[in-house]
């Protein structure tokens, strides 16, 4: 081969490489326009998949995968397929900040994200917001009740609301003396101030308030101190391993007393850890969880559940998430993003972010849709839509928050059984 | 019941697990000078073996034997097939620490990949509770405490009265001199890893029993108190590790009762810092920093 041919070949190779890089870079500018060639739109699942809150991640995946499945089955968004990609924050801001930066910098087709959780939201929401990444956060921190982050959306109730729900249910059950046993992590502690305030407002007495150091080998001294104050009920939010140790030691030392927990107490990892520690019988008898109200019926839920059960290859034991309110909101979040892209006629993040409320808020003449496929069809006909999610109707306030009622549930023979409800009206009255 | 007396009892349980683990950790370090940061993860692996044994219908003694056996074999294997090749290539102490961290991460993530990121409990009957002198113990906790006492007596007897114990002490003090005196240091080191591993495995099963629900990270989280107990007592000193375990275990529980549970770890580690300020070499004197790693 002559020297000249060799140089030409090198030039051609360099040109091809440059074109390839340019093509790759072209999709990095915040999402492709409607006319761009079809590619995959990444939905980041930005949550802990390891560490103390490793249970959060799988719950998120259980919402994202069915949504992506339905979106892709309906032809995608401008033929772009949706793909759920996990980004592990390890539940620690020190790990989450570099993870967020890396996710933004290295994912050319990031369409939006689910998360961050309470563990890393304060550190990462400003970064994600600055990068114009629409995010459906799952933190309950009251800080986000009235925040001005344009790209932050929340479909789950704030922690202050959880505190009201716990206090209202305890009052309904006739308890007057309670102990607050919460983990010393930021997420768990954010529930406590409103719980204490609401419990006092309802005439209850908080006889003990303990910040538990997580994942210790023993909590026996803490248990003895708590029992010395004679509580009738324990309010709690602690991670599964800590809960298993704490409750089994309580059971061994003096026997259990009723436990009222936040939604974490109804999630699969918590149920597995604690049922293994105290047994099924005592789990049913003593533990009640309060979780955001999530209907397990209706057109939207049926669609969600069907897609979830069909996603067994991506979601292990998918049926465990059928009644999970958080998985439902993640599903809703992805569907809302996809519909907003269609409504905006663009996958550009900054453009479609403005249309999130347009596809969810009710309005005269709007077509109510219960799935991405219905929404896509209606939008194609030039109609305005209101998407009703698997978790019910969505009504964002001006701070991008949407929350509702709570249901009390217990674990019975491996299934979550609803035992009552705390209404949005009761919560609103108490929070005034 | 008096909360301080109760806490004393609870502290003894924590100290017992810590003692078994930290004596195993420091015994191996004393002989080989390899700071094995994968120790906690080997503990976890042994807890999983015990889990499988109990799931198959095995009893607590069977689970403990399986855990100790697995720990011994795993530690021996780690030394023979991973650490020794590095030592023979002249890897210094800092390099070996990085190797053990790598092994730790590989073990932890390997266990998570096999068993998934979920929670496990040993399938054993619920223990009965007993009260002694104002302290409450379950039958399983009594077994753990009994094991700790037996392990400590065994280690003491081994080091004080047997030829192997004397050979271990000689190897720990100066491996070159020990070798030139005709001691088969390779064999001594192998036996040190086996013994340390057996204690590690026993501690892993005891930890799983105590925390009730465990994950693939349980042993790793327990490594800091283990190292603290070993350092407090004087690194490489089995008797020091026993004392260190008792100090850490009791101070954590008693401080939870006297001050607040929030300061449980703070107080335990403050004691560690204060002791090291006064006696940098730990409660028991000898320091191994001048030695090189041996295999």
Please, could you describe this protein's structure?
The complex is a heterodimer of chains A (432) and B (295). With 432 residues, chain A is an alpha/beta fold. Chain A has two domains: 40-157 and 300-387, 3-Layer(aba) Sandwich (Rossmann fold); 159-294 and 408-431, Response regulator (Rossmann fold, 3-Layer(aba) Sandwich), CATH 3.40.50. Helices cover 44% and strands 18% of the residues of chain A. In chain A, β8 (233-237), α9 (240-253) and β9 (259-261) form a beta-alpha-beta unit. The termini of chain A are far apart. Chain B has a single domain, classed as ABC transporter involved in vitamin B12 uptake, BtuC (Orthogonal Bundle). In chain B, 74% of the residues lie in helices and 3% in strands. Chain B has helices at 3-32, 39-55, 60-88, 93-115, 139-161, 163-173, 175-180, 185-211, 218-233, 238-258, 264-278; strands at residues 129-132, 135-138. The longest helix of chain B is centred in the N-terminal third of the chain and has 30 residues, at 3-32. The chains are: A alpha/beta (432), B mainly alpha (295). The A-B interface holds A 49-51, 54-55, 58, 184, 210-213, 215-222, 224-225, 228, 240-241, 243-245, 248-249, 252-253, 269, 272-274, 276-277, 279, 316 and B 1, 3, 6-7, 10, 13-14, 17, 112, 116-121, 126-127, 129, 136, 138, 207, 210-215, 217-218, 221-222, 253-254, 256-257, 261-262, 264-265.
Could you outline the blueprint of secondary structure elements for this entry?
The complex is a heterodimer of chains A (432) and B (295).
Chain A: H1 3-26, E1 40-47, H2 56-73, E2 81-88, H3 93-106, E3 110-114, H4 121-130, E4 135-137, E5 152-154, H5 159-172, E6 177-183, H6 186-189, H7 192-201, E7 205-212, H8 220-228, E8 233-237, H9 240-253, E9 259-261, H10 268-278, H11 280-286, E10 287-292, H12 299-309, H13 325-344, H14 349-353, E11 367-369, H15 372-380, E12 385-387, E13 406-412, E14 415-422, H16 424-431
Chain B: H1 3-32, H2 39-55, H3 60-88, H4 93-115, E1 129-132, E2 135-138, H5 139-161, H6 163-173, H7 175-180, H8 185-211, H9 218-233, H10 238-258, H11 264-278
